User: Fold this.
Amino acid sequence: MTHTSPGPDPAAAAEWDERYAGPGRIWSGEPNGALVAEVEGLAPTTVLDVGCGEGADAVWLAARGWRVSALDVSRVALERAAGHARGAGVEVEWHHAGLLDTDLPPAGFGLVSAQYPALRRPAPGDVAAERALLAAVAVGGTLLVVHHADVDTEHARTAGFDPADYVVPDDVARLLDDDWVVEVHEKRPRRVASGAGSHHTTDAVLRARRLR
Ligand SMILES: C[S@@+](CC[C@H](N)C(=O)[O-])C[C@H]1O[C@@H](n2cnc3c(N)ncnc32)[C@H](O)[C@@H]1O
Assistant:
């Protein structure tokens, strides 16, 4: 991937580095179930993993022959992800960047995957992140966006974060025009045995293919 990056937004990087600061990984270490279900049947080409975290998806994709670029705002997470890839004997291009802080190659990826990516809107109503996801998908390629569908909004606001500030699959779906075919747009159960987020039991899944 050729892109330049001034680096991620320092506040976002610091917030996520702090979340990853403990000694062990925070997620399960397994690829996300929705990714496995939606991608297993696709022929591997190039993929961009947006908000790759500790890299379990990127490693799984690379092991299946995908040429993987993965980006995240957290350097701590990326170091852990790189260690996971080394242990698995696979190559991944890691990028310390936020989705909107980097120049992605237009239509550059056969698959763009964003799994619970925590993409905060720059401002209310700003759809730059959604547009960046769409613009990165090659003609003929696939966009896969997955998020939790069972977030308790009131509880989240009490804890200091507003889910409305973050991009979810429905937000991306609203921007799809005739250049796209929606292949999956649904809520479905999810089961994760361990790690932060394992209390979430419902996914929102959007898979769309770019026609032109
Ligand atoms: C809930 S975690 C999900 C990680 C991974 N996709 C997974 O499923 O295990 C959200 C990730 O998004 C990253 N992130 C937050 N803001 C981002 C941004 N603007 N661009 C890219 N990644 C971002 C965080 O650092 C974090 O690793």
